[in-house]
Amino acid sequence: MGYESSVPLFWRLIKPRYQLIGNKCTTCGNTFYPPKFLCPICRKEGKLEEIKLGKTGKILTFSIVRSAPTGFEKETPYPVAIIELDDGPRLTSQIVDWKEEDLQIGRKVEACFRRIYTDGKEGIINYGLKFRPI
Ligand SMILES: [Zn+2]
How far is the CA of 9 from the centre of ligand 1 (A)? Predict the structure, then answer.
């Protein structure tokens, strides 16, 4: 099934992800994104509640992807960074709208919504969520 034929479904699926819904363990105070079913620290003692995370964070580390998974060849090279959100959770995401000087540790970034590829299986880009320098 092509991308165009599934746009309404696509938007329904993406919206909650775009809002950066994570969760927080009220027992230990840690936040998680994507949300976890069980707090890895407290296990059964943990109480998880859904929270909306802020869209800003910073680059912890990054690398340039030069050989892309199938479907992403046209986008190479592109940077992929581990980002620490201001609310705590860390996640891996592609960086977009970047210039050479933006690629540095500690650079502030914000979440933005970008095109998603429904056949992406590599786990990096399939949230539809990317980050851009601010
Ligand atoms: Zn906990």
Answer: 34
What class, spelled out in words, does domain 55-133 have in CATH? Answer: mainly beta
User: Ligand 1 centre from 19 Cα, in Å?
Assistant: 23
Give the CA distances from residue 42 to residues 1, 29, 31, 46, 61, in Å, rounded to whole numbers and listed in that order: 42, 10, 12, 5, 28
Say how many Å lie between the CA of residue 38 and the centre of ligand 1: 8
CA of 13 to the centre of ligand 1 (A): 28
pTM of the predicted model as reported, rounded to 2 decimal places: 0.72
Any idea where the domains of the chain sit in the sequence?
A: 55-133
Distance of alpha carbon 122 from alpha carbon 76, whole angstroms: 15
Per-residue pLDDT of the chain (134 residues; tens, 9 = 90+): 444 455 565 555 555 556 788 899 999 999 998 889 999 999 999 999 999 999 999 999 999 988 877 776 777 888 999 999 999 999 999 999 999 999 999 999 999 877 665 555 554 445 478 899 99
**What is the CA(24)–ligand 1 centre distance, in A?**
8
How far apart CA 80 and CA 60 sit, in angstroms, is 11
Ligand 1: centre distance to CA 77 (Å): 38
